[in-house]
Design brief:
single chain; about 250 residues; alpha/beta; Rossmann fold; seven-stranded mixed β-sheet; two-stranded antiparallel ribbon
């Protein structure tokens, strides 16, 4: 099977070791804790890749299914899983595939995650409906998307003012992996949630103050950075200018 994401695997994994990558996963994890039912419950991570978001959940007692179309990314998940204890390994299932409803449709989950996937889809509607379809009644659905309302912020803070001016009227840009990807708005995704039978519980911003720092390594100030990002992620006007938006809904 052709893997269109194989060439992105190494850059993506390298990104996870930067301050920006660390902030994304730790901050989203903390936001999830506000809404996830306590373990043991079943979690589906659609497009979960190497398991950066869902593997920590398995360590906490959640039963996790990671669905991803990329063999390269799932190999990384296998390697991570191999280093875990027996109890964690038993709680994680890795499935290669792209159509979650077709592959997991006979099952149902208490929580469904889809992080960093919508930006690679031309139309987010089918995916939102798919996420809703594999959740049990009152399941939590978590979506992380690129913020179309703040695309000018990164280039402006990096001093690329011409690109920032053009981004004011754009709905996509060249992401950190060098791929053109699309943004969404809170309003647009909220409407799709409602259409799919999901009520919006809360939304957060992710990476308000660290997105423009490129590939900077995490430093000694990480605890302070994370606390600042956490507090700002729930407050206006800060969350509105975040690079990423995190929406949590319930069926």
């Amino acid at each position: 099977m052709n893997d269109p994401f194989s060439r992105l695997a190494e850059p993506f994994l390298a990104h996870q070791r930067t301050l920006r990558g660390l902030v994304r996963h730790i901050l989203v994890g903390r936001q999830l804790e506000e809404h996830l039912p306590p373990p043991p419950v079943r979690v589906a991570d659609i497009g979960g890749g190497a398991g950066h978001q869902s593997m920590p959940l398995a360590r906490k007692g959640y039963e996790v299914t990671i669905l991803d179309p990329s063999p390269a990314m799932l190999r990384e998940a296998h390697q991570t899983l191999a280093s875990e204890g027996v109890d964690v390994r038993r709680r994680v299932r890795l499935v290669q595939g792209e159509q979650g409803a077709e592959i997991l449709g006979a099952e149902s989950f208490d929580a469904v995650l889809c992080h960093g996937v919508l930006m690679y889809l031309e139309d987010p509607r089918p995916m939102i409906h798919e996420l809703a379809s594999i959740g049990r009644p009152r399941a939590m659905v978590s979506v992380l998307a690129k913020n179309a309302s703040a695309l000018a912020l990164r280039p402006a803070l990096e001093g690329r003012y011409g690109e920032a001016l053009a981004a004011l009227d754009a709905d996509r840009d060249l992401g950190g992996l060098g791929v053109l990807s699309r943004g969404d708005t809170v309003e647009g995704l909220s409407a799709l949630f409602k259409e799919a039978g999901l009520g919006l519980v809360r939304w957060y911003g992710v990476r308000m103050f660290t997105d423009h720092l490129g590939d900077r390594d995490p430093g000694t100030e990480v605890p302070e950075v994370l606390e600042l990002e956490w507090e700002a992620s729930r407050r206006d006007p800060y969350r509105a200018v975040a690079r990423l938006i995190h929406l949590v809904g319930q069926s």
